[in-house]
Amino acid sequence: MTDVDQQQPDFPRFVFPGDAVPAIPEPSDADMDVDGGPPAVILGPGVRRDVDQVVATKAGMLYHNPEGNKWWIDSDQKRYTPSANENVIGVVTHRLAEMFRVDIGTAHPAVLSAMAFEGASKRNRPNCNVGDLVYARIAVASKDMDPELECVNPRTGKSSGYGVLKGGFVAKVSLKTCRGLMYTNNPTAKILGKYFTFEQAVGQNGRVWINAPTAVMSVRIARALELSQSMTEDEFARHVKQLSDEIKQSNS
Q: Could you tell me if 229 and 237 are in contact, meaning their C-beta atoms sit under 8 angstroms apart?
């Protein structure tokens, strides 16, 4: 359920670890835009720069999205591997003096600085407690250190939707499903949006936050999203219509 460059018939295609990826390596800081803009190439999960080329680090389907020149590999990987600039949904597990520990489904918890919120200062600390859900961006990802999160847009300093998530319910789906939901023409999202009104935040770590007008509706939409992974598009459309009819009858 992802957009693929229709002018490049070679994508998606299956690759093995070590295979070369026909992407221009990410430029250094000196090559960045003067206003701090993003690099010309965005490397997602499963691909990395190796000296003067880009190579695959795992087996799977190689995708290329020309919007932003993004490259990534989709596979049946169960555990999320953090990658810089990706959005994630985490649960605060520890509150320390200057930072929070956040579970994002990785081998080690991520670190979220108390200063990494819009308007945060030593006097104005974020209202974030153990057990809270946070929608954050991975600022730093390295195999040698814990992932670092931030709840602000690095270009504007504004929250831009990041921060503590109030209410709602979290659906746990595959990493591939989450990546597909990032696209506006995703069939699953379109079908749900046709019958229900709700907010959603998609974390690329296999978690999707759903916030509908009622708690019961949030749970039922989240469960439907989880079921969509084992259904065809037509089956899912019928299931969601039936669910919508049941909710209308229970409210009448």
A: no
